[in-house]
Amino acid sequence: MTGLTVSPSVPRKRRSNWQLLMANRLAAAGLFLFGFIALLAILAPVLPLPNPDITDQPNRLLPPLSDGHLLGTDHLGRDILARLIWGTQISLIVGISATALAAIFGSLIGLVAGYMRGATDTVLMRFVDMLMAFPYILLAIAIVAALGPGLLNALYAIAIVNIPFFARNIRGVTVSVRNREFVEAARLSGKSHPAILFTEVLPNVLPVIVITMSTTVGWMILETAGLSFLGLGAQPPTADLGSMLGQARAQLFTAPHASIIPGVMIFALVMSINLLGDGVRDVLDPRLRSGALDRPMAVTKIRRKAKPAPTIENAPSLVVEHLTTGFDDGGHLTPAVKGISFRLDKGECLGLIGESGSGKSVTALSLMGLVASPPGLITDGAVYIDGRDVLGLREQELIALRGARVSYVFQDPLTTLHPLYRVGEQVAEAILAHQAVGKSAAKTRAIALMETVGIRDAAERSRAYPHELSGGQRQRIGIAMALANDPDIIIADEPTTALDVTVQARILDLLQNLRRERGLALLLITHDFGVVAQVCDRVAVMKNGEIVEQGVTDTILRDPQHDYTKRLIACVPELGEGQRFLARVRPLFEEAGA
Amino acid sequence: MTGPAVQMRDLVKTFGGGRGLFGREASTVQAVRGISLDLKRGETLGVVGESGSGKSTLARMLVGLEKPSSGTMLIDGRPWEDLARSGTRAFGRTIQYVFQDPVASLNPRKTIGEILDVPLKLLCGYENTKRRARKRELVDAVQMPLDTLERYPHEFSGGQAQRIAIARALAAEASILVLDEPVSALDVSVQAQVLLLLQDLRNSLGLSYLFISHDLAVVESISDRVAVMYLGEVVEVAPAAQLFAAPQHEYTRTLIASAPRLETAESPA
């Protein structure tokens, strides 16, 4: 490998799953409570408990704390503590087995339906829909009625009614995994469909199965208890939490403890499992773990060591001084931008160029405090817009600047435009966010803006949804939104990377013309030296969060000073160079020992 | 064997058009409209075109991931239908595919060793010891360290992952490689390295490449001949140097004119 290769990311200090689970206090409490109950249930045969099935009529309905019966006795004089612990054991076994059965069959249906798609998918999923069309408990009762009452039949019934839940969940995940390229790659490697399903797809779906199981066990126990309560599950004299509750119902007023005690046990068991299940889901779900589902704060957290001067005199449009941004990863700060400084004059175009991971996008987002926090954190530096340090402003003032004085154009407008609103409305919304104008006035302005960015039949096209437009047109809409409030500075983050070359040329022309006509300052972030050469007056080269070189584009392209810049430029193939390109770059990598 | 590595004649691929549940005919899209192309042995044929030009559909038909609607293909002298009838393994042994996104094409839950094992076992039918030796050779061939085999895909950068994906394609010992935008997701310096690697492998193993890209300069740097695709048709085929020096077709000229260049032609006012 050469010095230029992006090294594999330094292993980040990730907290282990166990630590994460323990950090969630509710989940930890659930785990300990559940562990305690499960331990009691497992130890039932060795605990010094009286036989739970021996009746003792003279001592019926003794209150708790009676002599020899810690929790009293029931209407037949049986020891409630013994029945409670044995009953918990049965409820747990039934609940967990039912979950396992439902998980196996439900996941199988989901996997096959999601992988095969087409007719198989339709038939299997309509079958699942049929199961779901019946009221839940009614279906369970019907199944038990058909099979005859009994604990085992109740288990089957509960497993069957829960199959749809697993099947639908797993099918959804399978569909998305199946469309990933590694599945096709496995086919080209010679794997058969069943082998792909079970060795390539299943490992990627497994976490979802585990998560779904952990969140359903509690329900299953509750349902078993429900069926037993109705007399359809455990048959006398077998103790089971639901049947204990059902049998004690008649004495609810004379001896409430006989029904309250199993009720509390069901509550404790189901609560603890659900809390634990939520905790397990939070730990295993990668989106939750990465914090992607956390609500980010409105402005990046700013914790600067030194307070810079709040204003500077005679400043150009944008001055960035010693900007430092990092990501707080559980107490460990990973720097992404390390003290960079640059300035942007009115009407000027500065190119910020770098390879992936060089920190150029984080730089762009830091300027307006748009880096998601947590984990983003600005630790040093200042951003002056018209001489005022915006990082020192109050939150509301900074938000008011966004889109008004400084606006952004992003790489892929398909992901930044809202798919359910017409593009005209979205441009109008950008106007309304900052200007007190009427709705129809905003609409007229929006259409005018769309004409400015070169969309033909703008009035007609303003009624289109984003997916009805081509990539180039969508990017024009993105630019129209950026222009909505006559900003002074536009920050364009890889605005043409997702576009074809012919479209790219036209979008770059558009940006160039707008800059000339409106005196806009443009900060163009890109990885492409060709784009820089075409539109930028000056260029700054970023590497590992630092600017290694900046200057006038022509000079840097013709006479790069820093080794990194030299290499970057040398690695760009020139049209018309043909196979000489490879011969030219070969020594660059050989001397580095590749 | 003589004859070209791949021969395509009047290849057409139409998507959609099936009947729905209630007998309504779905609308159709012609992704590939009558393509005839030859890939000679030991040659690199570049295919350039913009999104929607049908170049990926063409590639996917070649490796058997899509079925052509009409037309004929000879791959390594064997008709496409023959290969299709004998199943994916027959395809895998003759022609291999390198995906655009290297990270997405490697199963995140398998080590590189496990990933490379599959084609060696299923396509080449090697014994355990032979497989272990081959895996080390392959990792070495794509200039990666040996401990690569025990690691997982997420531990590698894009360029390294693409080397691994190339190693997997080589594992099948097929002599034809279809490379679908193999360097588009990579940084320029890494891109140059992967291109060098591809060139070395072709020269040392006598491979034939169908190299698909939207980037003219990249295609030019590695290809012997270049085919330009536009809306599902090949509008021009010519030796690389000739195509870029004297483009014949109007669309080729537009493509070449649009490509960004390093010389700052006009200094912006």
From TrEMBL, chain A:
Listed name of the protein: Dipeptide/oligopeptide/nickel ABC transporter permease/ATP-binding protein
Presence of the UniProt keyword Endoplasmic reticulum in the record: no
Localization, per the record, is: Cell inner membrane; Cell membrane
Report how it sits in the membrane. Peripheral membrane protein; Multi-pass membrane protein
Membrane spanning stretches: 90-115, 127-148
> Which keywords accompany this UniProt record?
ATP-binding, Cell membrane, Membrane, Nucleotide-binding, Transmembrane, Transmembrane helix, Transport
All copies of the ABC transporter domain together span 318-569
Protein family according to the UniProt entry: Belongs to the ABC transporter superfamily. Belongs to the binding-protein-dependent transport system permease family.
Q: Does the keyword Transmembrane apply?
A: yes
Can you cite an annotated GO cellular component? plasma membrane
What species does this protein belong to?
Answer: Devosia oryzisoli
Per the record, the GO terms for biological process are: peptide transport; transmembrane transport
Q: Where is the ABC transmembrane type-1 domain?
A: 88-277
Q: Name one GO molecular function term.
A: ATP hydrolysis activity
Instruction: Give the matching SUPFAM superfamilies.
Output: MetI-like, P-loop containing nucleoside triphosphate hydrolases
TrEMBL record, chain B:
Looking at the record, the residues that make up the ABC transporter domain are 6-256
Report the SMART domains cross-referenced here.
Answer: AAA
Please list the coiled coil stretches: none
Q: Which domain of life is it from?
A: Bacteria
How is it placed in the membrane, per its record? Peripheral membrane protein
Q: Which family does it belong to?
A: Belongs to the ABC transporter superfamily.
Give the UniProt record's GO annotations in the biological process aspect. Answer: peptide transport; transmembrane transport
User: Pfam family of this protein, just one?
Assistant: ABC_tran
The listed locations are:
Cell inner membrane
Q: Which PANTHER family match?
A: D,D-DIPEPTIDE TRANSPORT ATP-BINDING PROTEIN DDPF-RELATED (PTHR43776:SF7), TRANSPORT ATP-BINDING PROTEIN (PTHR43776)
- Quote the protein name from its UniProt record: ABC transporter ATP-binding protein
**Which terms does the record give in the GO molecular function aspect?**
ATP binding; ATP hydrolysis activity
Matching entries from InterPro entries are given as: AAA+_ATPase (IPR003593), ABC_transp_ATP-bind (IPR050319), ABC_transporter-like_ATP-bd (IPR003439), ABC_transporter-like_CS (IPR017871), Oligopep_ABC_C (IPR013563), P-loop_NTPase (IPR027417)
CDD domains per UniProt = ABC_NikE_OppD_transporters
Q: Name one GO cellular component term.
A: plasma membrane
Keywords in UniProt for this one? ATP-binding, Nucleotide-binding, Transport
